[in-house]
Amino acid sequence: xxxxxxxxxxxxxxxxxxxxxxxxRALQSQFLSYHHNRIYxxxxxxxxxxxxxxxxxxxxxxxxxxxxxxxxxKESDSSPESVKSVxxxxxxxxxxxxxxxxxxxxxWYHRKWVLSKGHSSLDHELQLLDRFQKADSRNFHAxxxxxxxxxxxxxxxxxxxxxxxxxxxxxxxxxxxxxNRSMLLSEILKKKEQESSSQDxxxxxxxxxxxxxxxxxxxxxxxxxxxxxxxxxFKAKAPLLVSSWPVPGSDLVVSGNVSLADHPLSSxxxxxxxxxxxxxxxxxxxxxxxxxxxxxxIQSTFVQNEDVTWKPLSPQNSRAxxxxxxxxxxxxxxxxxxxxxxxxxxxxxxxxxxxSNGLQLSIPFDLSxxxxxxxxxxxxxxxxxxxxxxxxxxxxxxxxxxAIPSLCYDGIAVENKYEPxxxxxxxxxxxxxxxxxxxLLAISDSKIGxxxxxxxxxxxxxxxxxxxxxxxxxxxxxxxxxxxxxxxSSHSQYYRDERSLVLLQQLLSSREMLLRYCFCYxxxxxxxxxxxxxxxxxxxxxxxxxxxxxxxxxxxxxxSDNELHSIEGxxxxxxxxxxxxxxxxxxxxxxxxxxxxxxxxxxxxISHNEIGLHSIDTTRYSCSASPLSHxxxxxxxHDVFPPEDSDVTNYWEAFMVFKxxxxxxxDIVGNAVTNEKFKSFLPKVLPKLQFLDGxxxxxx
Length: 700
Description:
Belongs to the protein prenyltransferase subunit alpha family. By secondary structure, this protein is an alpha/beta fold. The protein contains 22 helices and 19 strands. Helix 9 packs parallel to helix 11 and helix 15 packs antiparallel against helix 16 (474-487).
């Protein structure tokens, strides 16, 4: 049992166990002889029953009993009394086995099989279940069996609801009773055709569960049921497109020059990208699948719709994702002409894009932008490294006001005239629950109450529209998570991550807020009046990234001096060229897996993290690309980097992250993994690397 310390067996106990094991082996040997020879005599049946009473998990014995039942029924006189007697004997065998172990899968399955034959009385079953549920009210086997028996008896959902209410009245901590209640109500809600009827049921349930929460605010059972009710109140609707790049209505100028000196990223409308890989990013409010050339159509003079392949940006190699990317080939555009080419993208006009719960993208979206190509210039021979020191950045507010358009925030909503679908009942319900939880926290310092309030407040801010950027309650929510980190240190990382997500929503809540963290980089020599635009979210105590739908346009990002242990979601930032992750808490190269999807990335700093300090993260070998799996796209170059190279074996995780990148600058100093052998490995996997930890590799 859980929580019981193990003690060394006494000599007499060990001897008794050995004798018991010997008898069990002899009984098992005798039983197997009966089974192999298809002997179903009373003696054989008694042996199997005795064996199951000692070991109810012996599936072979249960299967033997099924064969024996079929044999006995066939050999009987076929009278109802005789057949019933055979099945009643089986129920007794199962009951004896359950007394030995009332959580035996095999025993419960066999009892279901007996009853499904329709020859046994059901009157005794609920009484038996009452005994088992009194012995262990959270025995999910018994609860599953109860639902099975209730269906056979034709008991009404209302009667079963009353049963759960009685159990909860006796013990508010009966989590299984709460869970069964949610399953029963789910069936009722499915049958209610009128929305008002469902709302009345849910409102009454809120009143019911609040009694439990006020009685014992620290008991989690009622809170989990309350969370389920909130989910019913705000059921996920059809998926929506909440962000995209390019931004609808934007006029873009593309250059094939990828050097910062040649093209300094100083304007939102001008950027450098490999011309054959012009990214179009679609960001949905929930995971969707079915994004392809049939459900998304592209009209342009330089690309055919069927030539665009849409890919989910998912490190799990899933067919579904919140973020999808398609690449347009601009290499055929006339670079000597300043003519703009219109690109129109339509989705949602045909069914096929759907969420994991089967809901279709019901609102059609039409996105359009223009693109023109700058002439390809001879790239500069200068080799300039990016330095992330504070004095390299300067404020340029007037320039930024023009460079970063407001369309980053409301482009899709304005373009498609989205109308909120939140009902007055939903708004009223969430407001009432916020009030109730506030009242509860006034008399109790409940941790889970604080978590619930934080979630409710953020839901309230986001309720008017999926594009809403207001963070009215952000400061209060940040305070709640700060309190929780002190109250519950064992879960401080979870609270810190949730706090980080709220903080990012606040920092990126409006164009005006965003501009406070945008600077021009002055560390390169360029013909441009202004240097590259860098979004600096450094030194913000961020442990987890979010709000990527507001960051699709970013090409230079500083996340240094934070507490990041993961960069999950960063794969959405397809334009990213320069990234500073220095002085964070990244523990392994596995944590950098999203970088594999950033094909435009040239400059990366992961200096002064914890890579190599901890034991190897083996999750890659079970769920991602590895020598032992077939999930990753592994492309070997036998001439330059043969697969039997020992460095690949020693630094497999680093190889998988870096192999598809074209980095020209990498800073990795200050990590435990860094040594001369590893540094000599990096230029082999990154052949275009020019600067490593500040040193020019071409001058060494």
